Each structure stands twice: as structure tokens, then as C-alpha cells.
Amino acid sequence: MSNSETPREGLPPAVPPVTRRSFLFTLGLGLNAVAAAFLTVPILGYVLSAVFRRKAEQAWIPLGETAHFPERQTRLASYRNPFTRPWDGVTADIPCWVRRLEGDRFQVFAINCAHLGCPVRWFPGSGLFMCPCHGGVYYEDGSVASGPPPRGLFEYEYRVEQSVLWVRGGRTPTLSESV
Amino acid sequence: MARVLKAIGAWLDSRLKLQSLYASSAGHMIPRSSASWWYVLGSGTLVCFVLQIVTGICLALVYVPSTTEAYASLEYLNYQQTLGWFLRATHYWGSNFMVALLTLHMIQVFLFGAYKYPRELTWMIGCMLFLLTLGAAFTGQIMRFDQDAYWGLGIGVSIMGRVPLIGAGLVQAVLGGPIIAGETLSRFFTVHVFLMPGLLIALIFVHLRLVLTRGINEYPVPGQGVDPDSYDEEYEALVEKEGIHFFPDGADKDVIFSALVIGGILACAAILGPEGPGGPPDPTLIDTAPRPDFYFLSLFAVLALMPPAIETFFILGILPLFVLILFAVPFISNRGEKHPSRRPMAVVAVVMAMTTLVTFAALGVRSPWSPVMDAWSGLPLPEATIRNRSPLELAGAAVFQAKQCRNCHAIDGSGGERGPDLGDVATRLTGDQLTRQVLQGGGNMPAYGKHLSPSETTALVAFMRTLHPKGELPARDASVVVTPTTR
Predict the structure, then answer these.
(1) Using the beta-carbon criterion (under 8 Å), do B67 and A76 form an inter-chain contact?
(2) Global pTM?
(3) Each residue of B394-403: pLDDT tens digit?
(4) How far is B464 from chain A (nearest CA, A)?
């Protein structure tokens, strides 16, 4: 609070001499820094482990017999996410929209709107996907028809083997990374 | 008896030095003018926080933070646990009161110029407390693990996915895995019950410490501004001249207000009950329209109404800039007048900010941009629109419903509001224009060309040509000469 400078005469010099006490204190600080580093690395590794194993969390998932998906129709399917914890419960059941064009030609869309991730709904009458949150609308091929989405619906890679439809997925799609 | 108590008191005082603790904390001197009804909002917020801690601990006794069990434990709390519904309701209404009172406290501090010299840090810590409270509110909304919580998380990670370069990593770090699942809820639980309350308590201590070191703002007087060079002495002189002890002399109104706050929360809890949980958090149940709690409705609305091209820039650039400006307020205006009557721009800023927030929140409740998902199958057509119509027009009315037009277009006020109300569309568009608009879309309307047969289109347009108010003629092609007899 006071503005008056204390005179510097009579005070010890600005750099105090190294004493045994000050040396041990500095040494102690250094040891603690090392200990803190040894603690921080495992903590970060633990907390951020999900980030590091990210690339590995993609797998082929069966969606069922192709016969379940009539041609020229779009149907809701769901699968159990392969990267799941035993206590995930229903949250690991992930829905998706399967559009069968004809034969083995498919389009499999993520449920999440490309705008902010809400679940889009299919309206066969108008051939549109509509989002209940901010009014994003997509055509049957997943391209944007109206509203705020910056891109079309996220699409799964798919393949058909022995009449079974497989998709490659495993994560929640965002603008940074598709399914 | 009294002698024994006195002896115990003296013994404790000699160990804990309670009298000097009192003198340097609750008993500190404040200007008499600060013991005003306007100054009860901060302590009211603190009362809410204490109530949140108490009720939160109670809820944690029963609540299970696991995606398999959370929903069931919420239902158990609501219906089976003795007074579980009341504790949930008190925690929910306590959070609403806390956000509301904290907002009012900030507005009052802003309008009274209390953030100016020497209370800049008090204001900035207050801003952190505000952000943390909103964070606690959001994570608390996730604890109510229902459909809104699940898809609210989806919105949260979609926003994070927009961050350049590190977006994908950020999403996984927040979710604790590739999808919203067990680890996500554990993470948000940890943040909600350990990290945020801990940080809040620490920062509240700093905030109150600053009230002790730099004093509480004196009631502003027009014409008496702040000059950092002389303010400290003036304040000390003021406290010297007419100071009172905060506790108990200056705390009368705070004490009454805190009882009113608790009473208000308990009354809301008892009468209005707990919030939710809504539908179960099963992602495959997609017939849901997620909405946030009221404090995030305005943001929810802004995200719907903003031009898509600037959206990411707004979220990652403009929003943090707003927060930065909020923190910088004491450095933008550090001295001068405090009284709102001498600071018209400050009043205008508050009125504008609150008008904006309330308007957007009201829009968020109505969500006019969102299609009404069941309007096509659930809403009857107004009788007047189908009475005395030709078979073709009636067929068109059926097409109108079956093709979900109603989800986005109301007729005479009932139906979606995404597109214009079509109750009088015939006065605006000719038959040819209607056909073109329906088939090709445009102006934010999807094209229906692929999903309408020529006969359906003809019927639909014939129906829409009948949609005009009585006594108003439908629009016509001006290039076609109409003789009075042909109409």
C-alpha cells in the first residue's frame, strides 16, 4: 500500500550467498520437479488414452442379411459398437440408415446430422432426412437439401460378403473425422 | 451453565484465535451505504452453491454414474427412494436459481461500476465463477442421463469436432472413447462432482478474500467517480467515518434474502417437482427432439439461425472473444463514474445483451426452424381448406399431407414454421410458380421433383391454388390478359 521505497543501504546484497540450507532447498525443489514429471506422464497417458488408441478403433461390423433391406428403400438398422466397455449398456447400440439402391449397391448413413450431431429421421413420402434440432434436411442420397449442415450425411464404407452387409465404423462422426 | 459455556468459549478462542479471525473476516468494516438490498445477490448465489453441495452429496448417495444404471437410478430416486424426488427437485431448482442469481449479481456489479479500480481481479474471478457455474450446469444436465443428455453430448462433441487440427483428438478425450458411452458418463460425473465444485470453492475463497482486501463497493453516487490515485484513501476515510461491521450489522438484508432464496427453491421443488429424466438414453430411439436447459437455449437458437458459412468461426472465434471482452471489462473502463445514471452506454449494453439472450431463448423454446416431425400424420387440415373442394383438390390435400409438406409449412398457423405459412400461398404464387417451386425447390426448400408424379404435382398445385383468404383473389400471370367474363 505504501509508495515509499525502503532505502537499500544496510541490506544484504541482492544475490544471497549459497548456504547449505538454500542449496538443499533448491535441490529439494529439483527432486520434486522430477517426481512431478514422473507422476504427470502416467496421469496424462491414463486420462488421454482414448486419444492415443483412436486410430485402432475402426472395424468391420455386420449389419445383417442384405435380404432385410428391400431395394429402393431406406431402413433403420443398428449395431453393437465393437469398441465397448462391459458397462456401456444401451449406449453402445448405434443406429444407422441403410439405403439399398439395387442389387449390392448400398448407401449407409450415420444417424448423426452433420451440423451438430442430432439424430436425423427418414421420411419415405418426401424422400428426405430431417433433423429435429436445427432443421437440417438431406435428400435420400445424403446430400444437403436445406438448413445449416455444412456437408451431407456421414457415410459408412460398406461391403457385401455372402449376402451379409458389412460397414466399417466405430466412432461418433464429427466434422473432423467421419464414422 | 453460562459460566461453563463461557469457559469453553474462552478455551476455544485461545486455541483458534476466533476473535481475530472474526475481526479480519465476517466482522470486517464496510461502508454503511453498501448494506443495501442491491448487494444481496452475491450472498444469495453463495447460498445456492452451499445448497447444491448439500443436495448434491445426498443425490450421490443413490445415483449410479454408469450408462447401464444411471437411468434406472434416476427413476428409483424419483419414485422409490424416500423424498428422492424432492432432493432431485431441490438440486435442479437450486441450479436454476444459482444461474439466475449469478447473472443478476453480475448485472448489478456491472451497472454499479463495482468492477472498476481496485476491484478488477474481483470481477475477473467472478467471471471465472460464472463460467464454472455454467459448466457445472451443463455437466449436471448430463448427469440426468436421458435422451436430452445423450444428444446434448452429441451436440457438444460436434462443436469440438469443428476445432481445426486437434478436433478429432479433443472429441475422443472428452468422450473417453470413440462413442458416447460408459467412460463419457464417468468423465462428466468426475468433472461435475469433484473438479467443478473444488474449483468453485477455491475461486469463491479468492473472490471473498478480495472483498476483504479491497473492500466492498460503496453505493455509487452520481458525480463521484473513481480516481485510482486517490480512491484508496477516500475509501479508507469513508469506512473510517461511517463504517459498520459486515456481520452482524451489515448482513441483515443478506440473511433475510438467503432465507427467501432457500424458501423459493424449496417451494419450486415442492410444487413443480424434479426435471426428468426424459426418454431413456438409448441411441436407437431416434424419435426425439433434444433441447438444452434454459441457460443454453439462446446458444441453441443462435446455432440454428446463423448463416452456416460463419458458424465455425462464430463458435471458435466470436464466442471466446465475447468471453475475453467480459474479462477485460475492468481494463476497458477502469476509472470515472460508477452510477448507472452517468453511464448510459453501460445500461444500453446490459439491456441489449439481455434482450438478445431472452429473445434467442424464447426462439429456442419455440424452435420455429425445426420441422414438426409428426405434423404430416398428426395434424388435421383446417376444415375450411377442404370444404367444397373438387376431387382433384382433395387428392392434392392428401398429397400435401403424405409428402410431409406440413412438417415445414403451417396452414393457418398449424404445422411447421420452417417455411412460410401456406394458408394464403395462392395470393402470392401462380400455378406455374407453385409447380416450379415444388419440383425444383430453392430458397431453402428441397426439390421434390423426384418424389412427385405428374398427377400428384397437378393435384397438389390445384389444392394450393385454393389456399387464399376469402375475398382475396389468387395470384395470376400478369402477361395473360384476363377479360372480366373469364374469371
Answers:
(1) no
(2) 0.90
(3) 999 999 999 9
(4) 17
